[in-house]
Specification:
binds 6-O-phosphono-beta-D-fructofuranose; 534 residues; six-stranded mixed beta sheet; Glucose-6-phosphate isomerase; single chain; alpha/beta; SIS_PGI_1; gluconeogenesis
Length: 534
């Protein structure tokens, strides 16, 4: 099966309106997937049975099932780096065995989880004291990309369960970030977690050094060392940094940075919500893993989420995808998904190194509703670019006394997908203008501005309540979506060479900025910018 057959089908059905597809009274049910504890309604898209069959065949022909088994069982599917891809092992039960290079990795995963549990519960209960005998009131996680976005998103998402010390996140090398975060914190009561898989990332190491010095100025060099924790797979570097081994939580190279919040990189979250809640999150993710591994065809939620995405981006040619959680606490989900999806699937060559025959992953963006409605939804409804919208909403909020607000939130979410699909015709717009007293040409002119073309696709993911378990399901769902898309495109979703060139050039430019190296030899624009900035 090829992309061409799908493109041919799209050309045939393109003129048809999505709303007309609901002449099939069972469409909503047949073009939805219920799995784990969620409902994914993809009926408000142009997909019909033939398109779904073609997409399923595309995934099958790409070898999805074998590839999926290869991932779960620890084969080295990250072929450019020669690594297994085993974030699923971080949430696997002790009953499972997963071998990498002949060794079962699950016992070590659980040993580390146990160390994290012990550490976080002793910190939360006050058993772990500061070097000066006080109680830790604040935790600062210093990391960037995958060592920041996951836990930062999760701490915000699970705020109703946050009963541990305050947790802060510093990622940007812009000094403003660490300055504003540390301002108001007491260095004597602050635990600094340095989260970096490689322990070489310049932003993180620069910020970590600043934080260590900030503490040392208050409590002295030696004591400052006791206020540091390292989350890393680079034992050599954490030792060089002088972090004592019992404060190092390690993980293997088969955990990709953007897939790492389930293990040590999630320590700040575990400190915030406690080990039991963290376990619930892992349980949720595990339920999604089991589902993804076993559900067939249309019943498979991550598969369908991925295929809908492929349909919209690779087949219909819509350049971007908006993720619109009607859940304020998922405010960081779009940023998290930008890394997850764009760092994974923003590639230009296939696994074999040959140029891709189709476009790679889409631009992902978004904001929580209803805020976005008062900003960029104008373009979504009436702009000339079509943006497939992925709505998400909970049946229930965490605040029973704010049930009215929640109803309004849900009503807004549903109204948006309705408006996108149904639109408003010129005739309807003219009738409104007539009722408002406009006549003749002016009525037509005014009406033209109030036409909504409609026929714009969207999906809606409904979940019961944003508990740790559901949150785990949602994140795992997106991870698996990225996996499916990568397999269908034939790319390696687990390397990220595209971030390297800029890093190398930044290292070379820093001494130029400092005036230690001449600007000669740089391109004219960069020379000019350096001169203006120094
Ligand atoms: O620069 C990209 C990247 O390598 C991401 O893939 C990663 O999540 C992030 O940097 C941080 O890396 P580390 O955890 O090694 O500091």
């Amino acid at each position: 099966m090829t992309f061409n057959s799908l493109a041919g089908h799209w050309a045939e059905v393109q003129a048809r309106r999505i709303s007309d597809l609901f002449e099939d009274p069972d469409r909503a049910d047949r073009f939805s997937t219920s799995a784990a504890e969620m409902l994914f309604d993809w009926s408000k898209t142009a997909l019909d049975d033939k398109a779904v069959d073609l997409l399923l065949a595309l995934a099958k022909d790409a070898g999805l099932e074998d590839r999926r088994e290869a991932m779960f069982s620890g084969e080295k599917i990250n072929e450019t780096e020669g690594r297994a891809v085993l974030h699923t092992a971080l949430r696997a039960s002790t009953a499972r065995k997963v071998f990498v290079d002949g060794e079962d990795v699950i016992p070590e995963v659980h040993k580390t989880l146990k160390r994290m549990r012990d550490f976080s519960s002793r910190l939360r209960s006050g058993q772990i004291r500061t070097p000066t005998g006080g109680r830790y009131t604040d935790v600062v996680n210093i990391g960037i990309g995958g060592s920041d976005l996951g836990p930062a998103m999760a701490v915000q998402a699970l705020a109703p369960y946050h009963d541990g010390p305050k947790v802060h996140f510093v990622s940007n090398v812009d000094g403003a970030h660490i300055h504003d975060t540390l301002k108001g914190l007491n260095p004597a009561n602050t635990l600094v977690i340095v989260a970096s898989k490689t322990f070489t990332t310049i932003e993180t190491m620069t910020n970590a050094k600043f934080a260590r010095d900030w503490i040392a100025r208050e409590v002295g060099e030696e004591a400052a060392g006791h206020q540091l924790v390292a989350l890393s797979s680079n034992e050599e570097k954490t030792t060089e940094w002088g972090v004592s081994p019992e404060r190092v939580f390690g993980f293997e190279d088969w955990v990709g940075g953007r897939y790492s919040m389930w293990g040590p990189i999630g320590l700040s979250l575990m400190i915030a919500i406690g080990a039991n809640r963290f376990d619930e999150m892992l349980d949720g993710a595990r339920a999604m893993d089991t589902h993804f591994r076993s559900a067939k065809g249309r019943e498979n939620l991550p598969l369908m989420l991925a295929l809908v995405g492929i349909w919209h981006h690779q087949i219909c040619g819509y350049a971007t995808r908006a993720v619109l959680p009607y859940e304020q606490r998922l405010a960081r989900l779009p940023a998290y998904l930008q890394q997850l999806e764009m760092e994974s699937n923003g590639k230009r060559v296939g696994m074999d190194g040959a140029a891709l025959e189709t476009v790679s992953g889409p631009v992902v963006w978004g904001e929580p509703g209803t805020n976005g409605q008062h900003a960029f939804y104008q373009l979504i409804h009436q702009g000339t670019a079509i943006v497939p919208c992925e709505f998400m909403v909970a049946k229930e909020g965490h605040e029973p006394d704010l049930a009215h607000q929640h109803r309004l939130l849900v009503a807004n979410c549903l109204a948006q997908s309705q408006a996108l699909m149904l639109g408003r015709s010129m005739e309807e717009a003219e009738a409104r203008m007539a009722a408002a007293g406009f006549e003749g040409e002016e009525r037509t002119r005014q009406a033209a501005h109030c036409v909504f073309p409609g026929n714009r696709p969207s999906t809606t993911l409904v979940y019961p309540k944003l508990t740790p378990r559901i949150f785990g399901q949602i994140v795992a769902l997106y991870e698996h979506r990225v996996f499916v898309e990568g397999v269908v495109l034939g790319i390696n979703s687990y390397d990220q060479w595209g971030v390297e060139l800029g890093k190398e050039l930044a290292v070379a430019l820093e001494p130029v900025m400092a005036g230690d190296v001449s600007v000669d030899g740089l391109d004219g624009s960069t020379q000019q910018l350096v001169k203006h900035l120094t």
